[in-house]
Amino acid sequence: MNVAPDMPPRLEAHGIHVRHGPGCDRCLTGAGPEQGNRCAACGTVHAVRQVDVQAFDGEVLGIVGESGSGKSSLLRTLALEQAPSAGMYLIREDGPDDHQNRFDASDQAIRRLRNETIGLVRQHAHETLRMRLSATGNIAETMLAAGHRHVGRMRERAAGLLDDVSIARDRHLDAPATFSGGMQQRVQIARAIANNPPVLLLDEVTTGLDLSVQARVLDLIQRIQRERQMTVILVSHDLAVVRMLADRTLVMRHGQVIEHGLTDRILEDPHMPYTQELVQSLL
Amino acid sequence: MKHPFAFLDEGSKREIRRAAFKAVCIPGYQVPFASREMPIARGWGTGGLQLTLALIGPQDTLKVIDQGTDESVNAVNIRRLVHATTGVQTTHHTADATLIQSRHRVPDRPLSAKQILVLQVPIPEPLRRVEPREHVTRKRHAEADYTAAYLALFERVLKYGSASAGADHPVMVAGRHVMAPSPIPRLDNEKLHRAEHLTLLGAGREKKIYAVPPHTEVHSLAFDDVPFEVESFGDQACSTCGTTGVFLDEFDDGDGGTLYRCNDTSECLARLNAQGAPL
Amino acid sequence: MGYVAVKGGSDAIAASLAAVERKRLERGLTLDLARIQAGLRPLLDQVMSEASLVDEQAAALAVKQAQGSPEEAVFFLRAHRSTLPRLHTTATLDTASMLLERRISATFKDVPGGQILGASVDYLHRLLRFELMNETDADAAHAAASILPTEAAPSPADLTAPRVSDVLRREGLLPDVPPDPTEPADVTTMSLSIPAPRSARLQVLTRGQTGTVTSLGYASLRGYGPMLHPTVGELRVGWLPVEVADPMADSDDEDERYHVGHVQATEVETFVPVHETSADGQDRLRFDIGYGFCFGQNETKAIAMSLLDRTLETPGAAAVHDEEFVLLHVDSVESSGFISHLKLPHYVTFQSELQAVRDTQREREGDAS
User: Fold this and answer.
1) With a CB-CB cutoff of 8 Å, which residues 23-42 of chain B face chain C?
2) Is B87 a catalytic residue?
């Protein structure tokens, strides 16, 4: 990691809260239920509770937790796919004084951010890719959305990106529907970085892949992140994935961050009993 | 019992005219309206017919064409209906008409400021091929997000090396709305650009009216390095009047060869007559 | 005088229409409107319901001109409807005041107000009665005399009954629904926008093609839908008084309204069990109501409509939950029109496509050489 000491974080979110249900006096005033993430009085689910996130240029932040811990809900709000019930979100595009709360942005502005500023790679490629168009077309789509109108240059850039993620030239015009799971993830990654976004969000990107394929995808992510000095936030239930990539790690449970720190520290000296369990299971 | 002048009741006509006004104010924007059921079937020109009936007055002269000809059965049928319910004059001569209802063609002869062209539209949504859901396409238009339209063209270039996809090639109107020009050949797209006349487009089944007002910028979608191309008939000329550069129909010459003739039959006749008629 | 246009199209159409008229009349018999009105009641009901116009005589004329095709008859009647000015809006019809011909409930045997079987084909044996092959008007009159009711017919006042749903509401078994004063949508004067209000959905469904509405309702029962077995809480067929407010009066006082006639209608309320998680986290079962209504006696359609009303009110993956899918495809005039337009010439579009195909082939050949 290579952080200029006086630079503010590239991305900064405060007090993110995601609630499903109306809430009641008991769970709203206490910012969530006392046990678990479902209020015993009113049944409201507090998927994410008062979470703060910061990430610097060139940093990889890991978010780890079991399913239902709120980590994917958190990532969806950071990807501007889902509006939180409360919270504030800065992405410094225009220098250190960029204080726009991106949760308040218009639909149009959010579409631009998602296309040019935040790259997102999901667990299931079919949620992102157009499976019946060509791989090249899938990458061109984000460039078209950013206003590119030169076929030759878009083809060239798409070819470069697909080369970069090791998709053979003779498959560039094929549809992702005909690709293996690992190849689909690599096309997703190429698509996510097509407009050189400063931020890349990864949601369980290796879950469900064979181990050898997982390793190749993780290597690829690491190489791309280093070459481009991107800010990466990586969500996984698998501490092994986080260990390999993340500089810092947040541990989530019941919608809250229960522990955070340098990944090495968390692995070697976990403070919370839940984190200790996670680390134990890794050994 | 007797049917009212121009078939529709006056309240319906007013509503259709209001939608047309709104369409003129926002060029290329699809204005929803409560399409009425007509005595001809949905998909057979009821959108155009409703515009024609809402606009027509006793002083008008009407021309109806279908696929370039006044004598196509559907053109005859619509002309018969309008004539039967209004008694207005009808004509085959493009120059004499004040109101022209057409399916799939813009006449070869440039129209004047005193003429209105009404085009029948089967599918008004230019993004429909890539997005089936209406509430999504409406949002795309609102946000001027036309990525999907360009993506379809891009894929076409990858596959076939050309961005030109038959008739109904989408156009950008007044720099704001992407519009389906109705299935006119690509050659006709250019006749809408900075035209003297008003073009109104009506989709009866899909319940939309939209417009290209006079002197409006209309550009066919294309790429910087892959320009829009119109249909080319090479150096083929119409075998009847000898014209080139217009949309031609193909015929078998009965001898294993191909014969070309103007698709706009009334204009072909006008050209012949201008060359000096034999009679 | 120079070259003149060929008049092929006009002559062809004239000949084609003459052929249709010849086929209608070639056996030297014509249909009497009175006979259509007397003997084809379900067809008239279906046509008036799909056309959303109650005018028995116009419907009979439409059926006559359509030579019995329901699709064509609806088309005629809808087009006729487009020529009619809208003069007044009726006061809201209260179906509790329906003069009942028939009223059944599948939920309670002893439903308050009683079950009235009325005229129903539900228990009819579908056996061809060959003796009717040569039935004459005299036979009909004779037979009619023998089956006319001997007792005095009950007066209309005896033939109203409270709605089953109202009875259940009074007992607290169904949630109370306050009357909604919002002006209902009218998709025939304002274009349908998605998402549509429930009033617009109901209007589209009640105008829907009987077969299509039935098929979609059936699909929802068979598992392409919520898979819950609904129960017909009440089906009633009868006559509804129609009133119009005095256009000169300042307020819509009930006493100032004009009675303009009765329309026959079918109304259905189906009760659908729904799982619900309440605020305290408890899972409970409650009933939702699906609503069906159409002009005339049209029971299958009204029941199917009530199922679709319910599926459109609830989210789900199946097509019957998709508002655009259901509402944009159930209309007879629209679907039959667009399907039949495929017969229209597409010379220009096809020629343009042909050009594009040839161009790309030329391009490919150019690449290869």
Assistant:
1) 32-39, 41-42
2) no
Please state the pTM of the whole predicted model: 0.80
What lies within 8 Å, CB to CB, of C333 at 6+ separation is: B37, B41, B42, C74, C75, C78
Q: How many CB atoms lie within 10 A of CB A80?
A: 22
**Looking at the structure, do residues B274 and B197 belong to the same domain, yes or no?**
no
**Extents of the domains making up chain A:** 11-282
List the catalytic residue out of B202, B204, B238, B245: B238
Q: Examine the residue annotation and report whether B262 is marked as an active-site residue of this protein.
A: yes
> How big is chain C by its Cα radius of gyration, in Å?
26
CATH number of this structure's domain A11-282, picked from the four choices 3.30.300.20, 3.50.50.60, 3.40.50.300, 3.40.50.450: 3.40.50.300
Question: Which helix (H) or strand (E) is A141 found in, with range?
Answer: helix A135-145
Q: How many residues does this entry show for chain B?
A: 279
Question: Which tens digits make up the pLDDT trace of A63-89?
Answer: 999 888 999 999 999 999 999 999 999
Domain extent for C216: 95-119+156-177+185-330
The mean pLDDT of B8-35, rounded to a whole number, is 95
Give φ, ψ of A120 to 5 degrees.
Answer: -130, 130
Task: Determine, yes or no, domain membership for C237.
Answer: yes
The answer for residues whose C-beta is within 8 angstroms of residue C153's C-beta and 6 or more apart is none
Q: Select the more confidently predicted residue: B133 or C369.
A: B133
Asked if the C-beta of A40 comes within 8 angstroms of chain C's C-beta atoms, the answer is yes
Strand, helix or coil at C242?
Answer: strand
- B37: domain range? 10-143+166-220
Same domain flag for C222 and C345:
no
Same domain flag for B77 and B211:
yes
Examine the residue annotation and report whether B28 is marked as an active-site residue of this protein: yes
Q: Would you say A176 and A138 are in contact if contact means Cβ atoms under 8 Å apart? A: yes
Interval B211-222: pLDDT, tens: 999 999 999 999
CB atoms within 10 A of CB C340: 14
pLDDT tens readout for residues A4-53: 557 889 999 999 999 888 888 878 777 777 778 888 878 888 899 999 99
Q: How far is CA C322 from CA C195, C316, C318, C319, in A?
A: 10, 8, 7, 5
ipTM, 2 dp: 0.85
